Every structure is written in C-alpha cells, then in structure tokens.
C-alpha cells in the first residue's frame, strides 16, 4: 500500500516538474519576446478587434484594422472565419508586423460552429455531460477547421429570471448541474492538449453574475450578497477555472457597485488569488467604454481602472489602445500593469502553439472534410432528441402512429429561418431540417396537411424589434382570420394536430428580454381554435426560455418542448414524435405560472412563514391571487413510459464527517416503452448558521430501463456535499439533521433523513 502511495507521489511530482519545465520554457520565450517589444506593441497585444460588425461579409479586414495589424497594434481578431480569410489576416501579422507576433482568432461558437446543436439551455436539459462535451468537441473541430482557435463559450451564468433573453445561452438555474456542464464544455473545446490543431481555447463568461440582472432587463444592474454569489452564482465559473479554461470574459453588469470589467476584487482577488486562474481576461464588447455610461469616468479613466483591476484584453472599444500610453506617462498605471496583461496574452498564444506555427489552424482542405459531415449531423440529431422535454402527454397522445393524416399547423412548422435559435454566427439556417421535412423523413407513410395558421406575432412593433438583425417574423399576406380559418379546416380533415408554435429565434438571446413570456396572442388564438376542434392536439414548442403556459398545460393534451434544436432539429423532433426515440430531457429551469412569480426557482429559502400548499394563506409567504407553484418544476420531464421510485434506503442514519452515506432507491419502468430516467438527489440542511435552501441538487444518475425492468440506483454523499458558505465565506459543514430527497424531478420525491456528527 505504502509503495503504491510512493509511486503515486513520484508520478505526481514528476508531472509537476514537467509542468514547471514547460512553464519555465514559456516564461523564457515570452520574456525574450517582451524584451524586444515597444510600449505600443505591448499595448497592441491587449487590443481585440472585429472587422465589420462581427461578421465580415465584404473585405476580410477593414483598412484601419489592416494597418493596425501591420503596426503590431492588434492582439486578436474575431468575427472572421474560413481558412482563406484567416490566413490573409494572419499573414498581415506574421509577415508584415515588426515582431511577427501571430494573432488569435475568436468567434461566438456557442452551440456549434456550422453544425448547430440545441441552444445551451436545451443542451442542459439532456443532463448528459458526455453528450454536452461531445457537442463542444465537434464545435471545436469545426471551428478550428475554419481557422479559429478561440471560442467565446461556455456561457455559465446562473439565471432565475426567464424574462432575461440570455437565459437561453446558459445551463439553467442550478449551480451543481451548471458546474458539471461548464467543465464538460471546457473539456470539449480544449481537450487535453491546446496545441493540437483541432482544440481551441475556451472563454468562460460572463464573469460574473450577469444572469441576475434586475427585472430580467438586459444589461441591468445586479446587486447581491456575497453569500448568494458564493453559494449559487459563482460555482459554474469556478468549475470552468478548475477545468483549466484558458480565458474569462468579464460581464457588462456591476458587481458590488463596480462594473465587472474594472472590478479588482472580482478579476484579481477572487479569480486569480483565490481560484488560481492563470489565463487571460477579456472584456465584453466595448464594456470598457461602457463604464463611462455606468458613471465611472471618461475613457482614459475607465481604461486605466480596468487594466489595474486585472483586465488583459479590451474587446472592440480600443480604450486600451488609445489611452494607456497617456495613463502611463501620467503615472495612473504602471509599466508592470501593462506587462502583466501583455504577458498573459502572449502566454495564451504560446499555449495554443501559435509561436511554433502561426498557421496551425489554417488548412484549406479541412472545412470540406471536417465541417457538416454525416457524423456531425448524426451527432446533432442524437443530441437534439435528448434535449427535448415532454411536458405533458395526456391519454398517451404521443408517440404518433406512422399512418393516417396529420394536420401540421403553425408558423414554425415549415420555417428554416427559425430552427437554429440565438447565436448562430457561422450556422446556415438554410441547411437546417424543418419539422415538415423531418416528418417526411421519419414517417413517409403518413399524409401531411399543412397550414401556417398564424403569424408568429401580429404585433408589428414587437416584430420590428425581433427582426432587428434579419427578418424572422414575417407578416403573412393573408389576414389573421384567413390563416386561422384555413388551419381549423385543415385540422378538421385530419386524425391528429401537430401545432408547432413558440418564439422566433431572436425572441431570446442577447438584447431579447421580454416582460410577457407567454405565447404571442396570435398563436394563443390559433391554439385555442385548434383545441376547440376536438382533435387531439400535440403542441411542439420552440422557446429560448421558460414560457408561462398555464392555459396550455390545462387544455392541450400533449406538449413537447424542443427549444431551438439546431441543424437536425426537424429530424430529431420527428424521431421523438413517432417514438423512434423516447424523450428523456428534464428541465433545468422552473416554468412559472405567471411573470408575477418571477424569480421562481426550486432551491429557494423557506422563509419564517413558509407557503403551505392548500393551506391557510393569511400571514404566509405567498400571493392572494395565485399559488407559489410553478407549472413545471426544475428537473421535470416525462417519458412515453412511466417510472416509479421505491422508498429510499440509507445505509446509516448517522454519519461522521469522515464517513460516506449511501442512498439507494429502486427505479422501475412501469410503462410500455423502454426509456431513460434521470434520478435526482436533493438535500436540505435542516438547521444551520446560515439559512439553507429547501432543496439543493447534489447528485443525479441516468438509468436506462427496459419496460418492466427495475434497477437499484445508489448515490454516495460525503461531507463535502453537505458543506455551505458561512458568514465568513468559508466552506464549512455543521453537524445536525439533513433531509434527503430522491425522485424524477425536484417536486415529486421520496424523503428520508440522517444526521451528521461534529467529529
Ligand atoms: C457581447 C456578448 O455579451 C458576448 O457574449 C459575446 O461573446 C460578445 N458580444 C462578442 O460577440
């Protein structure tokens, strides 16, 4: 035993030696290079620019950018991709600048590069970190084949407010699941060797707390206690750092009253000193400049503040480029501040292998071989089908039979433009599969009768806002009544109605907050008319956020939430509708009944006057006009089969801090289909020195069961799972009673208790 331990130590210490030898080599290289750099060239490395509004459509790089690259005044570019364009830009840096320092090339590769996967919120509903990692791996392969070496992803902002459009870009409301997803995505992008030409540097964002924007209003103020930050909001960023993420993007919002982009506590004390982050920090798009509007001073002042706080790279705004030299001469910043930032950017380039070969990501024949292949499309189809959440299935309307006549109704039923969702810079919606096409592919024997039925919205002002970057919401030449009449007639001629309704792609995403998160009125009218026909109606729902669906839940027999499923969404949706794949997704955000309940999240505190279901309401934490319940709770999602959980069995009723606890339950497939269940374990620390949530997700396991089959699922907890942040922000455990809950969602659970001793 002792021998094994020693070998372990030997291996570990030789790995450390190796690592430090590599670090030493990098330090020497970078120091040598920096000793030859002018002040202007050092500041130039801190400058990240985009040639032409994010996506270059005309010239590869605009004139100003070209000149600056030649002068060594640009550290990186984003917004261009494709080997030819990237090579041209890299040539400017490597062949024409004095020191030949290569550029890094970034892009918002968020849920795929060209083969698009479900939006991140959808991906999170797979609860499958292997699939999520696979999606990031494919995205990295495609992006690197297209000349890129840096992705502005993963976005891991915890969000409890579905009014906020960017809830679509993250992994939901839970810090534990969010942390696992953050790690999986970093692994997927970066692999275990960043110098490989198919791995790219990840950038975790938006650091920090962006998802807590007040009222869900985009770019709004954030204000929260440190305990709240540490326990709920910071863990996914920390997980990405622990997984070795190469870069971090600061967020637009304030943290403790200071914009994140110039927040020294955040960018230096927490990120580097406490968490040990070794990479570089980039601002968000002009977030340095925006500090003037925040009320922090003029461009020179805010640029100096940001640099001193620990920001290394300035995205687009050129505040660093245009003011740092002056600030240095006036003693407002030091040479050491500039050198530290410059060193981190150069280290990133070194780690990517760009000094060995600036063209390692630029191979002209890679795109044809590695982008949008049969394999990537098959993966997109598989992953999409796992992301869908079956919200309701009364009378087993689903799966559908592959015969008879289907009325396929709705503005999203045959609409390529809206298949991919938000952030699809390199994605081509023309290559996506619509639901109409998917149904034809999967169930060729059925008759499809199609009617659009409604515009996505009839509200032209709203449509204009949604269409700011391109027309996603079209107003039909027919009147709303004509569309509706046609749809009802079509429904009446069919056996079953599949209504494909929901949000347009850019109704969620950046700058897409909504105060009303119900289905647009035009579509509600359509749905009501379809339900009135008496035909069985299946609602296939496109959404980038939780929607308020109380009427739909009460009145529509079947609801399948498909988010924005990506390139292969149409095929994947058809796979699920016709039972080729039995849905297994589980929600990672709570679906409220009404916006008035927001924020509504499962891991809330109990309060001193807890809400009681069906209990007296006077002097309780509740509303006069509505219950506290969501329509669908966190962790919820049905299957075509049903699962039952036995009572929970604990191997001990009391554990010491040095011991582990086993919690087991038998899950049985009690329905008529084989299927996969995600068994979830939550705990509650009943009494602690800081109040704790009513439930916290601590573990989950996916279990595949044939119909009739049972399996025992065992979870293990140790003292680390029982810790929390105390008032001194120390992670501690306290002895006492804990409740443990196991079930298929956060609401419907079996419960048991155990105690933890002090020693
Ligand atoms: C602004 C967004 O907040 C961020 O997520 C994105 O990476 C940058 N723009 C670059 O496009």
Residue ranges: pLDDT <50 for 5 or more in a row? Answer: 1-12, 53-62
Helix content: 25-40%
Q: Distance N terminus to C terminus?
A: 26 Å
Largest sheet: 6 strands, mixed
Plain-language structure description:
Helix 17 (435-442) packs across helix 22. The chain is globular, with a radius of gyration of 27 Å. The model is unreliable at 1-12 and 53-62 (pLDDT under 50). The chain has four domains: 1-36; 71-367, Glycoside hydrolase, family 3, N-terminal domain (TIM Barrel, Alpha-Beta Barrel); 389-584, Glycoside hydrolase family 3 C-terminal domain (Rossmann fold, 3-Layer(aba) Sandwich); 643-756, Immunoglobulins (Immunoglobulin-like, Sandwich), CATH 2.60.40.10. By secondary structure, it is of the alpha/beta class. The strands form seven sheets. The protein has a six-stranded mixed β-sheet, with helices on both faces. Strands 4-3-2-1-10 form a five-stranded parallel β-sheet. Strands 19-27-26-21-22 form a five-stranded mixed β-sheet. The structure holds 1-deoxynojirimycin (NOJ). Residues 54, 108, 152, 205, 284-285, 510 line the site of 1-deoxynojirimycin.
């Amino acid at each position: 035993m002792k021998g094994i331990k020693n070998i372990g130590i030997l291996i570990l210490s030789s790995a450390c030696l190796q690592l430090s030898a590599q670090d030493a080599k990098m330090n020497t290289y970078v120091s040598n290079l920096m000793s030859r750099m002018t002040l202007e060239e050092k500041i130039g490395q801190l400058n990240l620019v985009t040639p032409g509004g994010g996506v270059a459509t005309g010239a590869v790089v605009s004139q100003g950018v070209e000149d600056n690259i030649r002068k060594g005044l640009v550290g990186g570019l984003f917004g261009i991709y494709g080997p030819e364009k990237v090579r041209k830009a890299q040539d400017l840096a490597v062949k024409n600048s004095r020191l030949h320092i290569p550029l890094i090339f970034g892009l918002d590769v968020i849920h795929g590069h060209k083969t698009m996967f479900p939006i991140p919120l959808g991906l999170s509903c797979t609860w499958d970190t292997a699939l999520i990692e696979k999606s990031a791996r494919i995205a990295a392969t495609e992006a690197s084949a297209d000349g890129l070496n840096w992705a502005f992803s993963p976005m891991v902002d915890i969000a409890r407010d579905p009014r906020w459009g960017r809830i679509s870009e993250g992994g939901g409301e839970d810090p534990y699941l969010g942390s696992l997803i953050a790690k999986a995505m970093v692994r997927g992008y970066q692999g275990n060797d960043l110098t490989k030409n198919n791995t790219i540097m990840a950038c975790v964002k938006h650091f920090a707390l962006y998802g807590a924007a007040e009222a869900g209003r985009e770019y709004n103020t954030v204000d929260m206690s440190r305990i709240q930050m540490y326990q709920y909001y910071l863990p996914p960023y920390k997980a990405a750092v622990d997984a070795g993420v190469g870069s971090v993007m600061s967020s637009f919002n304030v943290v403790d009253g200071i914009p994140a982009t110039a927040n020294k506590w955040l960018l230096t004390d927490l990120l580097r000193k406490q968490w040990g982050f070794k990479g570089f920090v980039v601002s968000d798009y002009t977030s340095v400049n925006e500090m003037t509007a925040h009320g922090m001073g003029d461009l020179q002042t805010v640029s100096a503040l940001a640099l001193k706080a620990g920001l290394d790279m300035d995205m687009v705004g050129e505040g660093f480029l245009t003011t740092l030299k002056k600030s240095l001469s006036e003693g407002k910043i030091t040479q050491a501040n500039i050198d530290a930032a410059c060193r981190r950017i150069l280290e990133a380039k070194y780690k990517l292998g760009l000094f060995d070969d600036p063209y390692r990501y630029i191979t002209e024949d890679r795109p044809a071989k590695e982008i949008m292949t049969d394999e990537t499309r098959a993966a997109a189809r598989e992953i999409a089908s796992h992301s869908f959440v079956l919200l309701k299935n009364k009378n087993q309307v689903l799966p559908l039979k592959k015969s008879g006549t289907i009325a396929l109704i709705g503005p999203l039923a045959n609409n390529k433009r809206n298949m991919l969702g938000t952030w699809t810079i390199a994605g081509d919606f023309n290559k996506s599969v619509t639901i109409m096409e998917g149904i034809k592919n999967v169930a060729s024997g059925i008759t499809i009768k199609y009617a659009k039925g409604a515009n996505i919205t009839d509200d032209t002002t709203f449509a204009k806002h949604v269409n700011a970057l391109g027309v996603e919401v079209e107003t039909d030449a027919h009147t709303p009544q004509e569309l509706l009449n046609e749809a009802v007639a079509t429904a009446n001629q069919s056996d079953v109605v599949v209504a494909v309704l929901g949000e347009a792609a850019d109704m969620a995403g950046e700058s897409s907050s909504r105060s009303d998160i119900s289905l647009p009125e035009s579509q509600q009218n359509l749905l009501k008319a379809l339900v009135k026909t008496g035909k069985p109606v299946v609602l296939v729902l496109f959404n980038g956020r939780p929607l308020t669906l109380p009427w739909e839940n009460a009145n529509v027999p079947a609801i399948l939430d498909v988010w924005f499923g990506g390139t292969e969404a149409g095929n994947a949706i058809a796979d699920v509708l016709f039972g080729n794949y039995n849905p297994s997704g589980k929600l990672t955000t709570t679906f409220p009944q009404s916006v008035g309940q927001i924020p509504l999240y499962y891991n809330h505190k109990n309060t001193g006057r807890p809400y009681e279901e069906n209990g007296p309401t006077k002097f309780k934490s509740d509303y006069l006009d509505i219950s506290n319940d969501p329509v669908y709770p966190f962790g919820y999602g049905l299957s075509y089969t049903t699962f039952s959980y036995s009572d929970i069995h604990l191997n001990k009723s009391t554990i010491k801090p040095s011991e582990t606890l086993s919690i087991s339950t038998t899950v049985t497939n009690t329905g008529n289909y084989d299927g996969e269940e995600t068994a979830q374990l939550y705990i509650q620390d009943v009494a602690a020195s800081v109040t704790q949530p009513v439930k916290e997700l601590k573990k989950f396991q996916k279990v595949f069961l044939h119909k009739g089959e049972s399996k025992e699922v065992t979870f293990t907890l140790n003292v680390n799972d029982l810790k929390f942040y105390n008032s001194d922000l120390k992670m501690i455990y306290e002895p006492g009673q804990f409740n443990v809950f196991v079930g298929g969602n956060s609401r419907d659970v079996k419960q048991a208790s155990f105690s933890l001793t002090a020693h």
